[in-house]
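Can you give me the bound-state structure? Components:
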Amino acid sequence: MSTLHVLSHSPFSDSRLSSCLRLLTPGDGLLLCGDAVYALQGGTAQRAALELMPETIALLALAEDLHARGLVQLPERLQLLDYPGFVASSIAFDKVNTWL
Amino acid sequence: MKFAIALFSPPHAPSSRRALRFAEAVLAGGHEIVRLFLYQDAVQHASAALVLPQDETDGARQWQTFISDNQLDAVVCIAAALRRGVLNDEEAARHDKPATVQSRAWTLSGLGQLHEANQLADRLICFGGP
Amino acid sequence: MSQSLLIVTRQAPWSGPGAREALDIALAGGAFDLPLGLLFLDDGVFQLAPGQQPASLTLKDLQANLQALPMFGVEALYVSARSLNERGLSDGALQLPVEVLDDVGLSALFERYDQVITL
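Here's the bound-state model for the whole set.
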């Protein structure tokens, strides 16, 4: 059963991202929204950790949060989602686990 | 596809707005929302006592309009609500306090409603935090 | 067939109503006889620490709610070995009989349940 993990806390002040990364199994997805998109900031350990995820893990981000924060030079594997895309992803995976 | 949406954050949290946009996209995509369940600080969405500066978005009002327009089943956890001063007429009378929930869009009920929604839905989607 | 639900509790017991409200979801589900699991993760493992004295903060004891879990039919209780180790807690001194899972065990646990709430 695949899981789409959703994060919205900044990974620089919070342990959710690291806890989540350890749980991921092939077929799972990681959706960054809110301040969690700061994990994509270049030159950081968090960005490096995301790049190290196996290709079998989907990396997604909510486009509006990314654009609002002016993040550029994004990883090639990153899929940007609008809200219809968010809904589609929540259906594509068997379940959604939001790290509240 | 049937969705249960659970909200855990107050109206001023970015995740409240995110949940509303998601819910709109669910309905626009031809899917169904079996229930919206509000827990923890999300119960504040039901309060009529929120006053926002005119130039700020009133997330609670947007949610209420969305719920009324689409006749959604919106349940506020009663224990979480009482703890945070969110009372409808019945609870206000019971506890001898002023009522802060005016709209009939919101139902105050127990956590069993969250579990029931989860059983009725194909997907449970939670929103909370920042 | 009922959908199974895994509740992941990550809050320390003394950081506000978060831990109690997570437990309340589990207890409510147990009362409806639903297939439920409860996982103590990250700071949530502090809920299981021995020797806590809630009276010191004049707070209600969370232990009563924790001890009620099996009575409400919530018997699938898990804790992350890594979270315990990181926080200097030994699995021998916990307040509840919980199954200790390593990282692989945690991943498998998430695979098993239909839905998850992590708070």
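A couple of observations. Chain C has four helices and five strands. Helices of chain C lie at 18-31, 63-68, 81-86, 103-112.
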